[in-house]
Design goal:
Elements (H helix, E strand, L loop, with lengths): L1 E10 L2 E11 L4 E5 L6 H8 L7 E6 L2 E2 L5 H7 E4 L11 H6 L14 H13 L15 H15 L3 E5 L7 H18 L2 E5 L3 H7 L2 E5 L5 E5 H4 L2 H8 L3 E6 L2 E6 L5
Parallel strand pairs: 3-8, 3-9, 6-7, 7-8
Antiparallel strand pairs: 1-2, 1-4, 4-5, 9-10, 11-12
Helix pairs in contact: 4-5
């Protein structure tokens, strides 16, 4: 279980999230929603221990995250940041192999388990034909798929994904969204993802965290949290629930533009 206990998020002296309490279990798909600047990315950075909270604590299976050695933590949590601030010099395959560092203790060889994990991850994101291409030569969408492959190859209990489908075409968004959803259902992973598309979020998630601009939050099952009223308060615009077959879809009420 991934537990946030009285966690407060602060950035540049501004309190973004005030004392959030959430328990995230394996087999659940949580989506974080909110307008720009409310602390969605900051929350995931705290949950991955990249940053530290203003107050409160994060626990994994009852153990405080701050006491878990980095390599052990990397076997439990896979984190896809919103962006990277460096350019990788190696090939796509070598980049994906970075996700296996928490598992391999060998200095000059790669375990068969890691080889298999990398091959499967490259196939999942449909980059096996580009595995020997320099990472820096990839397009924006291809880079994002390689970044996802590295996190998938890490094979962790929990996935923290910050805008994971950014720069992907629609078909790739749907296919990889289903893959992550299947990891939740069949492999028992826990997922916490920042998404901006409410319709896509509704189709994927089981639980929702809504972050408001005044530091408040709502968290719980999708059926309880993802409502027209809550979404309207969250984004400051009218959002309507439409029924298409057996699926509920939330769409903005555009009116006259």
């Amino acid at each position: 279980m991934f537990e946030l206990k009285s966690l407060s998020v602060q950035r540049s002296g501004r309190l973004l999230i005030n004392r959030i309490d959430v328990a995230i279990r394996r087999g659940e798909f949580w989506v974080v929603l909110g307008p720009n600047g409310v602390g969605k990315s900051s929350l995931l950075r705290l949950m991955s221990r990249v940053d530290h909270p203003r107050s409160g604590e994060v626990f994994i299976d009852g153990t405080s995250m701050k006491t878990i050695p980095p390599k052990n933590l990397a076997r439990k949590i896979g984190f896809l940041a919103q962006e990277e601030h460096h350019d990788y010099w190696g090939t796509v395959r070598e980049y994906v192999l970075l996700g296996r560092l928490p598992h391999d203790n060998r200095l000059f060889s790669i375990s068969s388990e890691s080889e298999t994990a990398v091959v499967e991850a490259l196939k999942t994101v449909q980059l096996e034909s580009l595995e020997n291409r320099p990472f820096r030569a990839l397009s924006g969408g291809e880079r994002q798929r390689a970044r996802l492959a590295s996190v998938f190859a890490q094979q962790t209990d929990f996935l923290l994904l910050d805008e994971p489908f950014e720069n992907l075409d629609l078909a790739q968004q749907i296919r990889l969204g289903r893959y992550v959803q299947d990891a939740v259902r069949s492999k028992g992973a826990g997922v916490i993802a920042v998404l901006h598309d409410v319709m896509f979020a509704s189709a994927l998630c089981s639980h929702v965290i809504m972050l408001f601009e005044d530091g408040r939050y709502l968290a719980g099952q999708k059926s309880e949290i993802l409502t027209e009223d809550n979404l309207a308060r969250l984004f400051g615009c009218s959002i309507e629930l439409r029924r298409f077959g057996e699926r509920d879809v939330f769409v903005p009420s555009l009116g006259t533009i």
